Queue: 3 jobs
Job 1
Amino acid sequence: MGEVSDSKEISRIQAIPRRKWTEEEAKELAEALTRALKTPQGTMKLRPLQAVALYEMGTNGGALLPIRVGGGKTLISLLAGRMFEHCRRPLLVIPAALRDKTLREEKTLRRHWVLPAYIKTVSYAALSRERFATFLDTDYRPDVIIADECHKLSNQKSGCTRRIHRYLKANPGVAFVGMSGTITKASLKDFAHLAFWALRNRSPLPNNWYETLQWSLAVDVGVKKDRRLAVGALSKLGDGRNAREIVRDRLIETPGFVASSDGPLDVPLHITSRLVDSPLQKEFSDLRSKWETPEGIECTDGIEVWRHARELGVGCYYRWNPPPPEAWKAARSVWARACRETIQNGRRNIDTELQLKLHIRDNPTHYPEAKEALEEWEAIQPSYDPTVEAVWLTDEIEKQVLEWARVSPGLVWTGIRFFAERLSNRLPYYGSQGIDSKTGRVIEDHPPNKGSAVVSIAANSTGRNLQAWNRNLVVGMPTNGKAWEQLLGRTHRDGQRNPVSVEVWFTCREDLDGFWKAVDQARYIEQVTGQCQKLTYATKNVHKEIEKELPQWVTGMTLTV
């Protein structure tokens, strides 16, 4: 086994000053900044963590703030512009689903705080669009960029991330403030570039890709045993028991890096699970053994099998309408079979269709048959553009969910859109931007005494304050620790007065594996950032293994998701 090697980057990081805030210092700062920033009629007070975050960004020319869900990031984001003397054009970047909510809260907070006269707010999705191509460079030219839920910028290949990167590189005097309750999912690579944007040469993580990769192989979750690196030169940065402890201490003691480090909330959080048997065992059997959907369409890789298994778990599958032409279907089947055989071969660490495509283009002689199948498929693929529709094979799961919702008011969380839309025939459904399309009401305006509601995980698991609720059901769940932390933080948060219960329904083996993979990732996040994760400290009475020998619960293969 190798180890992390010594380098100039290790020496640079070792030389960065360390600081620790005492509880008393943070309280005194909160009182002083409250007096300086509040309006004459304002009655709100800064929390110590909010005050430290604001002070640190102002004194360090930027900040990276992994602050837990419910830690008061909205107020920090709106006050951030006040911390920079040169700030005239602050830009707040937020998820599209939170835009209306943020604007409503800004209006309320202006009564209590002296916010910048004007804050331009734009969504990550908008900033990726073609019509925003010149927004940063010529249209608005922000002098401070505040990114709320900055984990949206973790993918360095996304259009939005590339645009912000280019702008900051061309304008080194522009300050960057990144905030997120879930700044990393499974790797240091998720946020090393964000640390550089915020702190430049005072970043506590490597500023080049090669050394970031080395650190990741010592720290990240899911690294294969034969690739894991020992601590090596990381030991120069601290005397922790392992690589994660060393990196965590270096991060949280770096000026400009402010992480919430308080313990679990006092309010109990209970997670239980239930195995939901499906009547669709034949359909599961065909999916496992043939990689085929119920209408005979072959899957190209494990990700597609994973997706179809979760759909079958709630009683449906997606089909194309109108059906594809036979020639199109045949070419796709040949390519799907080539993908499957190559992936199951296990060579060259190829696990997905996209990886195989990229490998063939870079190495055209390695898989000649797959290359021929890909060329034929790509030639005919544009000739047919299907519409996707859901075909329902059973309503058994739907009935059980409706019964759960009838017993007592609760939130039904799901990541499967067609399932949510089907439930919306009987329950209010808060989808895009947290709005019920039938009534126009936002989820925050739906009190529990009006009965249960269905909520989209994608649209509502960040930024929403749903502490009025304390009973949750999750069907079609997220599969990573970051997404779980956000979801749980909607109801289990500051201000919650009642114990929070979360019932997780496993509808297939993929659900079970995904949940425990998320727990492993939550443990990594906690160990690296110092933030307590709800998945790790919740009381859990959750299945770990399934002894049933039914196709629904036996995958028959190892899937990489």
Job 2
Amino acid sequence: MKIPNLWGQGQLFAFSALEGNAYMSDDFAGMLSGDRIGIKFYSKIRRELAVVGHQVDDLVFNAVCGDWISADTPKGSIKIIYHNTHLILGQVCETAMPVVFVEGRYDRTFDGDVEVQDTKDGEYTALLCEGNKFAFAYGKSKEEVVKKVKEGIKADIEKAEKIKRAYFEEHSIDGNYDLLYSKCISVMKTQLYSPEYQYDRIFSTPDRLPHRFVWIWDSAFHAIGFRNVKPEIAEDMIMAVFCNQRENGFIPCCSAFGLDHPRTSKETQSPILAWGSWLVYEKTGNREFLKNIFEKNGKFLEWCYENRMEREDLFQWYVSVNNLLCRCGESGMDNSPRFDDATYLLAIDFSCFMANEMRYMSKIAKEIGKDFIKYDDAYERMKASINKLLWDEETGFYYDYDTETERLHKVKSVASFLPLFAGVCDDDKAKRLVEHLTNPNEFYTEVPLASISVDDATYGIDMWKGPVWINFNYMIAEGLSEYGFGMVARDITEKTVKLVEQWYEKKGVIFEFYDSANIVEPNKLRRKGESIEPYNIDIRVQSIRDYGWSACLSCDMIHKLK
């Protein structure tokens, strides 16, 4: 059994709903510092809990996890453990001491031996040290935090460590990629929030920091990973998305909550919930789960038909006219060159996602004894329209179709391989697609697949303009296998996992996206703007670290390789 033990600036540190109450509305999550053993917590005014004074030459980390840090030194051990809601326990080696740094103005007061940091914004933290042990707590009153640390300092550190270790003992794997796998499941654990407001079950969020909301396709990708760890939680992740569904079937792209005015987006997102649910069902065999999602997802797909179907069973994303940095957040491909010079597109990805949902809704219907014929019919209509309007015979490639110019919008993006994922192309078209896919001057870069073809003028290192995204590699590898290109699928899968492993070993984190040429470090890639060091999401959000679906889908890819 391997336990993650690589320190990485920006790694998430948070309490998980797997072990107790972890509420989105009252979150106290942090990121590992880059210049010392410290954790920067994202309260309204930032606080950092750091261990200082440990002048040793041979500190060795045994664990650097999402809720547990352990290191040995010649002068003793250093431990930091997120023990329960808003309470961190720890111990320090000889000569070292825990310190709380506050970035703004605050009052530092004492209640006996307890140091309280009051930032005058309704948030408090407190630190209590006894010998080599310490307790650090967050709360909404001085009395609350003082009580927490006084109770926490009595906790058994060794017992607290055993609880953290047990997660890896239960779920880790042996053999190839064992360290990366343990890192993946550590990240996955941190993504989980407890039931609250409209959410009646555990739910997940893309990365906790900077995102704290619920996204449609992220939840499905997370569930695909979690089906290997805790399948019942995988079901919850997908069902939680429907907690945000409106009566007319609409599901917002992302949702938080509120008693009267939920913070929700006006856009939707890629429909992949039937597909994700089926993959979870393959692990659980739980027909009740399928029954629960069938009607709800059917209503969502009907909404997509009524509000996003443009013509001939083809679908159009909402594209922003004003937001140049995020022209199409609804597609998830925020800054893809596909949307630079076009607004009204019959979208190859949206249309393929819908087609794929039709065939998986048919599978679900057959499994639970419901009407499947309407889904089969819709699937066939979509296939015909995609091949009629979005295929270019001359180049042997699929494109979006611009309804203003009445021409194919010939930007070659990774989205154009989704007909393989959705099973909508015939064998000849599949073969011609694979010729593009495996061309190193187009998509088969040092680490495939480039999100924009190398021979496109917009190809580069900014987000959806060239870098590799784990979710598209996963979906396209699935499609390649279905069409009999198993060797190509496996090569993509292996190279993807090795890429994630390589940069985890170098940087200690799992990134949102990666350079397809594998030259530029992930932390130096552009994300709608120049990268900035040191990493600070208060200044600019860059390629996000410990990103949810990168970890979850890498987890599932490792299972496929094994």
Job 3
Amino acid sequence: MCAQFRDVQQILAGRNLRIPTLNVLRPDSQLYEILAIQPTGVVTIRPSTANPNFVGHADRNQAVVKFSSFLAQARQFNSDLVVSPEYSFPWEVLRTAIDTSQLPALGKLWIFGCEAITPAELRQIINDHPQVEWISEPIPNESGQFRFLNVLAYLTQTETLGGVTRHIIVLQFKYESMGGNTFERDHLIRGNVVHIWRNPQDNIRLISLLCSDSLTFNPVTAQDCRFDRDPYIIFHPQLNPHPLNVDFSAYRGGLFGRNSERFEVLSLNWARNFSLPGLAPSLYGGSTFYSKSPNFRFPDNRIENNHQLGLHFVYWLARRTQLNIFNFDEHIFGLRMPKVVQDVAAVEAARTGPEMLALFRWDATARVWTSTTASDGFQALSQAFAPHCNYCTAAPYTVMDRERLFMLSTGNVPTPIESVGWHHATNLHSFEAESDERSKRLTFTQEATQASVDYRHQHLGRFIELQTAILPNAGNYPRNIQDLAGDCRMVPPRSATDYRFNLESLSGQKAPATVAFLGQVPTDYAASVFDSIVQQWGGTDKARRLVVWHRDGHGTLNSASPPVPTFSEDSEPATSIIKGVEP
């Protein structure tokens, strides 16, 4: 089914209302703030005698308390964009917010995926709350057993043409039912309209796709949207145990496959462990912020801060797009973003990517959202592998330190694709999202797809064997690094030495080295990895302290290392094999 895309300005004009100027859509250099809830819990989707037309939280009381508290935080932080996923927002909370005038301030936009509701129930809510202006396509008169609407509610503030302040609630109905879910297929009353939001000075636009609406949405054929001309934010709220399914994500491939930087997507799903009747708890997550800004910045401290507060970066190389994956656990995420387009002087413009400001978890005992940091699962995985591995979880190293160390220590030193070096987040293989957007980050372990699990296990296993079995045995050291036997520790590669070394002298008297272990691989492959790293380092003179170990088909440990230089050979002083090593 194809939806009609309708300009909100035209709809409001028909009600003698001005179109609001929304902060999120201003093309200026100011940041805008987002507050997003990613709930979990048991979801009821089957009709019952008590609630014959319902999809939403099974625990009604807890849902009302959680979302009331979420709404209070939205008011407290005065966030520019406040969002919840599909089927999550209780109508009771919306009723109370209207009755108590706890609604968005001027310039703010709230977008809530509401729990299922019947046409009769929706009309009753509208009739009970005339103090706000309700706007929607005609509410269908369909009745009968088990028929409901899936509603996305936009809340904002505007004025009448006469200058009187008016709160408005614009309702958008899901138009494409989930065919594989026979309950929604058989009982959803489908809508026809997708609203296009923009400011009076038209520039950035915003649309929302409710979960499976994305299945029939094609950016190329959505002529009313004019993606060829206008910058867009797309909000994609879901209740989906498989959010990375190729059909749900196809529209993103279409958008970001274009050579354009003028699109951003916020896909917001329920948290992992939500459960649908008859199905195991979901392994996802999968909420993600997508951006293709060429000015996106990747300083280690930003990646670290975001990671600790539940926003995990990967690079979608196939689409040259930055993915910021929300931690899969139940949280409220507070972050800020530069505008997708900044119509300002060049010296003012900087699309630097998202920055996490706060993370909250639900305290079931106190029944409040409390400040927290995210659990990435890495420490638990490391302890399961090797409780005595003294690097994996040791402070003060950052997630970037660890990812670089693990990549270098396993011989995974790619030829840079971007203008920055192999160590950059856009070049590190562990930061590279697969074509299906799947993460294989080593320090973010919530992605449970088997290929990602295997990738983590392979690289961490090789690193741990290198640290705990190979390096402690002095007999394993070839002559070019023999001086470090018994006097070394593993360290992350650093900028001061061009990110080339991962082994340093404990005494500080010996030159650093680069060591890697490839596991059990063919000898010619090990040689090719060695040669590739030598080339990356700029030739043999900068690779005098390089060793690549591997095990052959019999399990015997072998190494590739450069020839030992003579005293007449020159090499850089900081890494010279002559320093501390006999010829």
